[in-house]
Amino acid sequence: MIRRIPGVRGAQAYLYDSGEGLAVIDPGYTGSSRAVLRFITAQGLRTVDWVILTHHHIDHAGTAFALCQATGARLAVHRADAPYLQAGRPRERMTVWGLADRLPPRLASFVVSCAGGDRRILEDGETVAGLTVVHGPGHTPGSICLYSDSQSALFLGDVLNNERGLRTPPWTVNHSHRDAMRAPHRLGTLRFDHAYFGHGPAILESADQRVRAFLTRRRPVPVPVG
Ligand SMILES: [Zn+2]
Ligand SMILES: [Zn+2]
User: Fold this and answer.
1) Pairing with 95, which of 43, 102, 142, 147 sits 20 to 30 Å away (CA)?
2) What pTM value is reported for the model?
């Protein structure tokens, strides 16, 4: 079962269940936990087992800690992004996100997500709630996609968005733009019908072909020698 959660601010939030625990993927910007809870209740569901973050940005992760506290769910985040959810987080380079490090703490709390408490640290290739972690660093060091073999689906976080067709995020929001440009190439070998993005509409048919077509367009054409 996959549902987009309505009423969440920031990035798109999803409910995922394949019989190995109910997961909320990227619950959204600070203050969105009530919308998530309302939707869970409306679906006749009671427990949330996991809150899984595709990365630490506040439009995806801002309400993660509140949701964990309200439901008793465990937080799961990739090892390389976990430090960004704690006080004394690493400094960002000067992108839009890096500006947060120059703000007074009260203002910074609007652009920096803090989710303390117990968490599961994810590594590439591990599974959580029936989803396989596909590490695609660049947008953030610990950016991941989540792959579901049983539901033939891929959650892309911000590794690719679908706001005006498939795109990698602009350099202004990437931790390492070079890596962010390379990150989607790992997805070319996966088979999935459905693709769900942090930003932009889902693709619900032959999504893997669309991603592969994007990668082919993007791959630099070798210059003939001689
Ligand atoms: Zn985002
Ligand atoms: Zn992001």
Assistant:
1) 147
2) 0.91
